Amino acid sequence: MEGTRSGGAGDGGFCVCVGCGHREAHLSGVPCRKARCPRCGKAMLREGSPHHQEVMTRRGTGVG
Ligand SMILES: [Zn+2]
């Protein structure tokens, strides 16, 4: 889909904590990495981002 969009590199989606797996809705204009997990205080990543997938792969011991 093409069209004019206001905002950054995509709106919507979720931020995921790499520590405990907590998910939160991504806030437009606020990078996930700037958000902190409310549960464990660790940095969060954009769900489905290359970085997130890399972390999941590294942690993946028997997952999927
Ligand atoms: Zn967490």
What does this structure look like?
The protein has 64 residues and is an alpha+beta fold. The protein has 1 helix and 3 strands. Strand 1 and strand 2 (23-25) form a beta hairpin. The protein is globular, with a radius of gyration of 13 Å. It starts with 13 loop residues before the first strand and ends in a 5-residue tail after the last helix. Bound molecules: zinc ion (ZN). The site of zinc ion (ZN) has 8 residues, from loops.
Order of helices and strands: EEEH
Strand content: 15-25%
Residue windows where pLDDT falls under 50 for at least 5 positions: none
Arrangement of strands in the largest sheet? 2-1-3
Determine the structural class based on helices, strands and strand pairing: alpha+beta
* Helix run count: 1
Question: What does the radius of gyration come to?
Answer: 13 Å
Give the ligands present. zinc ion
Tell me roughly what share of residues is in helical segments.
10-25%
Number of domains: 1
N/C terminus separation: 30 Å
Number of beta strands: 3
What does the average pLDDT come to? 82
Shape annotation: globular
Largest sheet: 3 strands, antiparallel
Write a concise synopsis of the structure shown.
With 64 residues, the chain is an alpha+beta fold. It has one helix spanning 50-59; strands spanning 14-17, 23-25, 44-46. The chain has a 3-stranded antiparallel sheet, with no helix packed on it.
